[in-house]
């Protein structure tokens, strides 16, 4: 399973996704680790087993064992944080002033360069739709890597998620 196998499964009505996936897989805005980790974290956050397997198979060799673990950690921790901080934002009140009381030590010590981890957290937060988390991680990534890196992470997240949704729909309608 690879990016090419995903592209082959994307129907013609979604050929823009096929083209975007191919061009983003070869993007040079990010270094190889940043690119690979953004794809992996985005695939995990998109919750599609086929997409996750293909992305990890394609990009796994560009990541050290620590970087792969960090990409997985970014998807995991933001899966929790995005829900919690989205709740805080929506509910208003005193919740923003209260300590979260959730363990999230991986953010302070991800085992790789902090900027790369922030980039991956940004991509996952975009997929999960958490305004507070997107704003927080975007600021750090923009200051460290620039606006082009932020945009590339968002483009990868958007495309990987759209591919996951499309392939889920294709599989759901196979028996219809």
Automatic annotation (TrEMBL):
InterPro entries: AhpD, AhpD-like, AhpD_core, CMD-like
Superkingdom, natural source: Bacteria
Keyword terms: Antioxidant, Disulfide bond, Oxidoreductase, Peroxidase, Redox-active center
Pfam families in the record: CMD
Catalytic machinery residues: 130, 133
Residues annotated as domain Carboxymuconolactone decarboxylase-like: 94-166
Catalytic activity: N(6)-[(R)-dihydrolipoyl]-L-lysyl-[lipoyl-carrier protein] + a hydroperoxide = N(6)-[(R)-lipoyl]-L-lysyl-[lipoyl-carrier protein] + an alcohol + H2O
Keyword Disulfide bond belongs to the record: yes
E.C. no: 1.11.1.28
Disulfide bonds: 130-133
GO biological process: cell redox homeostasis; response to oxidative stress
Keyword Magnesium: no
GO molecular function list: disulfide oxidoreductase activity; hydroperoxide reductase activity; peroxiredoxin activity
HAMAP family: AhpD
Similarity-based family: Belongs to the AhpD family.
General function of this protein: Antioxidant protein with alkyl hydroperoxidase activity. Required for the reduction of the AhpC active site cysteine residues and for the regeneration of the AhpC enzyme activity.
Protein name: Alkyl hydroperoxide reductase AhpD
Source organism (scientific name): Acetobacter vaccinii
